[in-house]
Amino acid sequence: MTPETFIAKWHGATLTERAAAQSHFIDLCRLLGEPTPTDADPRGEWYCFERGATKTTGGEGWADVWKRGCFGWEYKGKRRDLNAAFVQLQQ
What crossing angle do the helices spanning 17-32 and 3-11 adopt, rounded to 10°? Predict the structure, then answer.
């Protein structure tokens, strides 16, 4: 996927966070030449979508994308508070 193709596809997207997150991340992987979670780890043991986790504040939460030892990724819809997404991941 080229940067131009990625921008053309996602610039005008009006999908909800839930409807777009995994497709957007897969396209981002393709743009960067990186394997997608399913390609890299078909069992979802160390890299996957929708990884459950215990929150530091108690209770359970989810990371939209998770790669052990590398990152947790939290999507938010357009015009949503990205600071809240960061806090959510920190918890």
Answer: 170
Residue with tokens 């981002």: 28
pTM of the prediction? 0.82
Residue pair 89/63 in contact (Cβ under 8 Å)? The answer is yes
Q: Output phi, psi for 40, to 5 deg.
A: -80, -35
Calculate the alpha carbon distances from 79 to 4, 17, 40, 46, 52 in Å. Answer: 23, 11, 31, 31, 25
Residue 74 neighbours by CB distance under 10 Å:
20
Residue 1, CB-side half-sphere exposure with 13 Å CA sphere = 20
**Digit-coded pLDDT (tens) for 42-56:** 999 999 999 987 877
Is residue 91 within 8 Å of 61, Cβ to Cβ?
A: yes
> What residue spans define the domains of the chain?
3-90
